[in-house]
Amino acid sequence: MGSDANSDRKQRPLGVFDSGLGGLTVVRELAACLPAEDIVYLGDTARVPYGIKSPETIRRFALEDLAFLLSFEPKLIVVACNSASAAAFEQIVDASPVDVVDVIRPGAAAAVALTDGPIGVIGTEATVASGAYPRAIAALDPRREVIARACPLLVPIVEEGRGEDDPIVLHVLCDYLRELQRRRPGALVLGCTHYPLLAGAIAKLMGPDTPLVNSGRAAALEVQRRLCSTGAANPRDAGGSMHCYTTDNPQRFARLGERFGGRAIDHVAFVGTDELETRPGPVYR
Amino acid sequence: MGSDANSDRKQRPLGVFDSGLGGLTVVRELAACLPAEDIVYLGDTARVPYGIKSPETIRRFALEDLAFLLSFEPKLIVVACNSASAAAFEQIVDASPVDVVDVIRPGAAAAVALTDGPIGVIGTEATVASGAYPRAIAALDPRREVIARACPLLVPIVEEGRGEDDPIVLHVLCDYLRELQRRRPGALVLGCTHYPLLAGAIAKLMGPDTPLVNSGRAAALEVQRRLCSTGAANPRDAGGSMHCYTTDNPQRFARLGERFGGRAIDHVAFVGTDELETRPGPVYR
User: Fold this and answer.
1) Which of A110-114, A136-140, A236-240 is predicted with the least confidence, judged by mean pLDDT?
2) Which of A97, A88, A99, A39 is nearest to A62 (CA)?
3) pLDDT over 70 percentage in chain B
4) A177 lies within 8 A of chain B by CB
5) Of A60, A160, A247, which is closest to B153 when you measure between CB atoms?
6) What is the pLDDT of residue B280?
7) What is the CATH number of the domain that holds B95?
8) φ/ψ (deg, to 5) at A41
9) Are both B165 and B254 inside the same structural domain?
């Protein structure tokens, strides 16, 4: 790649997608690690949640999300959705002309690095049923024990706006975490991008011997590593921009998104799922 | 209509749609009132839930669902989804060449007939935000007080398979119903097709002075009234058939659907949302 082409590549945005708002917790981590990067984010809020749907349907939606982001000519794609990472990572990598970072593999690696003991994983129905975390952990350490638990109510609880001190949140967490508390894993992976909003309560219930792994933070550090090792990081001093697209209800996205992303969402535009479904394949040059 | 045409009309199925599984509680009531009728059911499980989405998106999905059902040449359409009834009833009526029964207007009428006191309504975020129940009640009795409460966690709780004696279910219901318990409405409308599965616990919390209105049962009685008054009811003795279509995961639909519909689901087939979105308009002859 010539120096002009490489300079052009450095300026390109990161393309990030999720089924809805949760991926903004990954954007928050990206902004902390890589503040100079521009970000284009797609939240498929018309079809959210992915976590209760079949692998085939999640794959179809994820490939449509990818095709949309590729029209912005990103330098790297972040699959900021555990359910899409679990069901569609290989298909996304095959279909993408640029590097892809998901949330599962970096989350698994961070957990393996953190402990020699069993690893706990909590996530949506689809993520846990896929077995993607146990597979990613086994690829790094075949004998490692993994204790996985689906927690279907946590996404709607967070989206309803309930906080960590809400008695219902604590009651539901106690119910889901009971078996994990008993088995005392050496680390617990928050295998859903909504769960960082409940990290304080989860940490308290699990105790100090079970550190939490934020899979979004692990993914952001992996993006940083890849951009630096390939000389593709944006060298400017100024802060990067963020442009969001949502398939439903930009007002609700902006309002709730601030809680997930940790900062105001200034640019959010609507794109219909009918437009995603009829969009031609990658237009990457 | 000649007698042949009328005889043909009597044989046609009822077309029923919902965002997912909940509408099967309406089918259960239809089967109880009108056992001879054939039913074609569409559950849009790839895009479920509708209840957290914008009116515009719900309208688009609902019109696609309608177009699909019209290809079966039904004699009547049942909108077995409170969120779609709230957001899209007028648009569905405009687009349908056959009679349409929703769940909101019959539910509102049943509540007004049941009490002279205030009427409570519980439903999804979209149903409650739409104000559709207060409007339907005001059309019958302009001075009637309505106390509405959105209960976003109840749908995922039911879909997770939690029963009425689960402590978390009781805790969440107590939280949602607190204000309604204090204000003692003369009737409480279950304004979501999932809620009949929690009717026992809700009735216990509300007490004997607040009878519950099952909006699906009210809709089924309205369908019966319309078919009988127009001579369109199927006169045969044999039980009607039921064919289900789902936009995601027919296996999960059949497994969970039995709980909602109260009987085994024998015929369930997949239809993709891409097929719904590209389907031409009504093909009704």
Assistant:
1) A236-240
2) A88
3) 96
4) no
5) A160
6) 53
7) 3.40.50.1860
8) -120, 135
9) no
User: Residue A40 belongs to what H/E stretch?
Assistant: strand A39-43
Tell me phi and psi for residue B57, to 5 degrees. -65, -40
Domain final residue, candidates B193, B215, B237: B215
pLDDT at B283 over 60: no
Which one of B52, B171, B249 has the shortest CB-CB distance to A171?
B171
Q: Are residues A269 and A205 in the same domain?
A: no
Residues A187 and A118 grouped into a single domain: yes
pLDDT digits (tens, 9 = 90+) for A169-196: 999 999 999 999 999 999 999 999 999 9
Residue-wise pLDDT for A21-80, tens only, equals 999 999 999 999 999 999 999 999 999 999 999 999 999 999 999 999 999 999 999 999
Residue A284 domain-assigned? no
Chain A CB contacts of B64 below 8 Å: none
For residue B281, with 0-12 CB atoms within 10 Å meaning exposed, 13-18 middle and 19 or more buried, which class applies?
A: exposed
Q: What is the mean pLDDT of residues B223-231?
A: 97
Distance CA A9, CA A37 (A): 12
Interchain contact A275–B (C-beta under 8 A): no
- Helices B104-114 & B215-229, crossing angle to 10 degrees? 100
Q: Are residues B192 and B122 both part of a single domain?
A: yes
Same domain membership, residue A209 and residue A151: yes
Same domain, B208 and B157: yes
Task: State percent of chain A over pLDDT 90.
Answer: 92
* Rounded (10°) angle between helices A55-70 and A82-95: 60
Which residue range forms the structural domain that includes residue A187? Answer: 105-215
pTM for the model stands at 0.93
3-class secondary structure, B245: strand
**Number of separate domains in chain B:** 2
Q: Do A53 and B152 touch (CB under 8 A)?
A: no
Question: Do residues A112 and A202 both lie within one domain?
Answer: yes
Residue B282 has pLDDT above 50, yes or no: no
DSSP run (H or E) holding B121: strand B119-123
The pair of three-digit structure tokens given for residue A52, joined into one six-digit string: 């209760």
B159 contact residues in A (CB cutoff 8 A): 52, 152
Statement to judge: residues B78 and B135 lie in one domain: no
When CB atoms are compared, the residue of B47, B53, B171 closest to A168 is B171
DSSP state of B281: S
